[in-house]
UniProtKB/TrEMBL annotation:
Top-rank taxon, per record: Bacteria
Keyword Transmembrane helix listed: yes
Keywords linked to the UniProt accession: Membrane, Transmembrane, Transmembrane helix
Keyword Transmembrane helix belongs to the record: yes
Natural source organism: Kibdelosporangium aridum
Protein name: Secreted protein
TM region positions: 189-212, 219-240, 397-415
Lineage of producing organism: Bacteria, Bacillati, Actinomycetota, Actinomycetes, Pseudonocardiales
Length: 422
């Protein structure tokens, strides 16, 4: 009875030409599969980084801008109402700039790929913004006429910002920050599994080279040597590119987005403190709740927010944060003096201190230094994320080409040896 096809295949695989044929097919397929997997992994990481730069990062920055602009607008308006009649032009211009920036940031956020919750929050904030500006304009109109009703409107506007709009802005910021961190974590991981597979491919190529040396008595096989070098180059390229991308991605998170978060949280509380300080005076004896809130904010800043900002600072921002912290402590001391003047009945002296004295000047220093630190950290985030993507710019094509070259080299290296047995 003639042998079956299976028996022939088994018999063939036990002989040298059959073994070489199996090795050829396996090595070619493994090289092609590894090259495809590595190229797809690089493309995935690059797409994630593109989303971090153009999507998540931009929306997160917009959320920070909304949060800060609303807080600053509230503090600016409160400071403006310390002056009877027409408010100073610089404060009016600053308020208008804050509102313009908040509106622009809402537009940027709305244009991003938002989740359902974030999209709903942006819609709510967009609806509340004209309500807030309307209350402020009414307050201004009454204030110019010297009518105390303006105080009620400015208090209502401040309550709308702090109790509703800032809470919504914080929810938006936290949601988008979480989404950004998840994307950064994905991009900050080296593909160890593929590296192990790549090393195994190299080991397989070397093992086959040794096998050929022993069976054919030839020291080197040119095709397998080229395949080994091509695979080594591809694995090295993948390792270096993904490691550099991961390193830049981690830096963009630690010195960029994480620092922005720490600085922004501190700055927003500083703006709340300034608003409370001004509204306490604007209320003229009825501002106890604002002073109590100032104390709460002071405790939050002293109890951890400023320490977090200092811990998040890099070499580019540490001096700015130190300056802000020193100015804050000076402001707290001068605030006690301001309250002493107001509580003792010298309201005009307290107003003078708040507008032209140490409290106002030191607040300006804290706000300016933290604002500059936020801008630098945001630039660091963007630059490092771009560098991470740049590290992967041509890696997918290069790695794929090298593994295809390795597969072809395996074919041209083993096929002639197989034909020798025919």
């Amino acid at each position: 009875m003639p042998p079956s096809g299976v028996q022939k295949a088994i018999t063939f695989s036990r002989r040298a030409p059959g073994q070489l044929t199996v090795l050829l097919v396996v090595l070619v397929l493994v090289c092609l599969a590894t090259g495809l997997a590595a190229a797809l992994d690089v493309q995935r990481n690059r797409a994630v980084l593109t989303e971090v730069i153009e999507g998540g990062g931009r929306v997160t920055n917009a959320a920070v801008e909304i949060y800060q602009s609303l807080s600053e607008a509230n503090a600016t308006v409160a400071s403006a109402f310390l002056v009877s009649g027409v408010e100073p032009a610089p404060l009016r211009e600053r308020y208008q700039t804050n509102i313009t920036e908040a509106a622009a940031a809402l537009t940027t956020a709305a244009a991003g790929s938002l989740t359902g919750e974030s999209a709903a929050i942006v819609t709510e904030l967009a609806a509340y913004l004209p309500m807030y500006t309307g209350l402020v304009e009414r307050a201004r109109a009454y204030n110019r006429q010297g009518q105390p009703l303006g105080v009620s409107y400015i208090q209502e506007a401040s309550h709308l910002v702090q109790a509703t709009m800032l809470r919504l802005a914080q929810r938006l910021y936290m949601a988008e920050t979480t989404r950004l961190e998840e994307a950064q974590n994905q991009a900050g991981v080296v593909g160890w599994t593929l590296l192990v597979v790549g090393v195994l491919v190299l080991g397989g190529l070397v093992a086959v080279q040794i096998y050929l040396t022993r069976t054919t008595r030839r020291v080197l096989n040119a095709g397998l040597l080229v395949a080994t070098l091509a695979a080594l180059a591809a694995v090295s390229w993948y390792a270096i590119a993904t490691a550099k991308a991961a390193d830049h991605s981690v830096t963009s998170r630690q010195q960029g987005s994480a620092a922005v978060k720490a600085f922004a949280e501190a700055r927003i509380k500083v703006l709340e403190a300034r608003s409370d300080e001004a509204l306490t005076l604007v209320a003229r004896g009825n501002g106890r709740s604002y002073e109590e809130h100032f104390v709460l904010v002071r405790n939050e800043l002293n109890g951890g927010l400023l320490a977090n900002a200092k811990a998040a600072a890099s070499a580019d921002t540490v001096v700015l944060v130190d300056n802000a912290i020193n100015a804050w402590h000076g402001w707290v001391d001068s605030h006690r003096e301001l309250r002493s003047q107001d509580d003792s009945g010298d309201y005009d002296k307290a107003i003078e201190m708040a507008t032209n004295g140490a409290p106002g000047e030191l607040y300006g220093t804290v706000d300016r230094e933290l604002g500059t630190a936020i801008a630098r950290a945001a630039d660091k985030f963007h630059d490092e994320a771009v560098s991470a993507r740049g590290a992967l710019s041509t890696a997918d094509i290069g790695i794929a080409v090298l593994f295809v070259l390795a597969a072809l080299a395996v074919w041209f290296g083993l096929a002639p040896r197989i034909r020798e047995y025919r």
